[in-house]
Amino acid sequence: MDLKYDMDRIAEYLAERYSPWGWMGQRAHDAAGINAFIPLELIISCDHGREVPLFFDEKKVFSLEKLDNRRRNWSNEHLKSGFTGAGTFNILEKVGSLPAGINLLCYRSIKSLEKFALSEKSLRLFAPPESLKRKLDNKVLFYDSLEAIGLEKIPGWTGRPDRYSFDQLAGELGKPFVVQYPYGSNGEHTFIVEEPSGLENARRSCPGQKAVIRQYVDGFSLNVNAVIVTLSGSPEVVVSYPSVQITGAGECSSSRTAYCGNDFAAVKGIDPAYLRLVKEQTVRTGKWMAAAGYRGVFGMDFMARDGKLYPVEINPRFQNSTSLYIAMRTGEGGPDILLLNIAEFLGAGDKYLSGFVENFRAEKAMRPLEGAQLVLHNKRSRTVVAGDLRPGIYRNGHFVKGASLVTEIAEEGAMLVTCGVPAAFTTVEPGAPICKIQSRGTLLGSGATKLNEQAEKAVSAVYSELLLRGEDRIEKVGVRK
């Protein structure tokens, strides 16, 4: 890259010209890698973990979880609720009180913030409109559009599950089969159906709604981050290095469809032809999204089997994997996807960053990465944290030091426990994500479908330290009944 676009200089430029910066998303820790590159003034989040003071001033974090000390399976709808209703923080007052306003990097946009940004000059949102995000988030729309995009779909169709019997669907698609409703993250409203009761559960989830009804692909999942930028007046899709997506790992979740992490390091063990397919299909999809007016960061999930790659869904927003990608790239050449996203929303008026986009070589984003993360969920009914899990780096089960970024891992075999690490007495709802384990190497075994022995031991140790107990069994922290 030309020296005038050295990453340190870009970071200095963004801080000096556009500060203050802020982050809004489901997880406060998603901001850790960004903050390491561009100092932030504000974080708006759903969750709140013990790792926050290791990378940010807690007084500048506005978290829904801090209101009642309860960990939920946070969603975009929870984030929207933070701007309305009694008892929530009035973030609009905070934004309006900042002398220079704020540039807010967003996991996704929110309509109330869009209205505020139009009426006030104190807020600039770095995200596509909520209405466009909602449209492209529709899994049924995407499945029905695959032929027009020029991509092969997993055999199936879209329709209302309540109009078919289990025997009809099993006879046509085989067992198990998948029912996937238009909206839902972290595996919510996606069902792997093996028996009539499973189909009934799917119907009750979203009564009367249309869904994707398709074959189950017994392969492995890939995920990718990408960004659509404007180059010489036309949309250009930049695709990053993909990761193996970890879904439904029994060690981390009780749900077969739950998102359980990403493994960039494991990609080197799969057929390189899949990387070419990921890039080709992501570019095709990005062009389709761009035609609808979309710009900025997005992601895609795929299923891979027998040399074929099937697109499953698009995520028109930052993903759970994006924060890990940004953190690792910040320590290895610069967070390219983040910077291209920022440049796109600043627009052509910023000649310096426009030059960065013009000079950026897309193949740089496809450089291999060594890193992985697991998301640990509450696998039981409602529980309370009775242990003392410290955020930071561990090696051989022993705490080494407090830390918040995967790039701080120096020793081989060490792992980072971070992202929402709950304090004692935190109530954890069923299925809610608890924290992450991050590593500089792979967490998967051969075949990229199962956790390796090191990862299994780490997961077990974290759950042991958490001491999750039923609400009725807790008298005081650290006491088992």
Proper CATH architecture of the largest domain? 2-Layer Sandwich
Could you report the average pLDDT, rounded to the nearest whole number?
Answer: 92
Question: Helix tally?
Answer: 15
The structure class reads alpha+beta
Portion in helices: 25-40%
Strand content: 25-35%
Please describe what this structure looks like.
It is a single chain. This protein is α+β, with helices and mostly antiparallel strands and 481 residues long. The protein folds into 4 domains: 3-127; 158-212; 218-366, 2-Layer Sandwich (D-amino Acid Aminotransferase, Chain A, domain 1); 372-473, no CATH class. The protein contains 15 helices and 24 strands. The strands form 4 sheets. Strands 11, 12, 13, 14, 15, 16, 17, 19, 20, 21 and 23 form an 11-stranded antiparallel β-sheet that branches. A 5-stranded parallel β-sheet has the order 3-2-1-5-6, sandwiched between helices. Strand 15 (296-305) and strand 16 form a beta hairpin. Mean pLDDT is 92; it is low at 476-481.
Brief synopsis:
By secondary structure, the protein is α+β, with helices and mostly antiparallel strands.
Topology summary:
Layout lengths: L6 H12 L2 E5 L6 H6 L2 E6 L15 E3 L1 H4 L1 E2 L4 H6 L9 H7 L4 E5 L4 H9 L3 E4 L3 H7 L2 H11 L6 E4 L6 H8 L3 E4 L9 E4 L2 H10 L5 E5 L4 E12 L2 E6 L3 E5 L11 E5 L9 H19 L4 E10 L2 E8 L4 H11 L5 H11 L4 H9 L12 E6 L5 E3 L6 E4 L2 E4 L13 E4 L8 E2 L4 E7 L13 H14 L1 E3 L11
Parallel strand pairs: 1-2, 1-5, 2-3, 4-22, 5-6
Antiparallel strand pairs: 7-10, 8-9, 8-10, 11-12, 11-13, 11-15, 13-14, 14-17, 15-16, 17-23, 18-22, 18-24, 19-20, 19-21, 21-23
Helix pairs in contact: 13-14
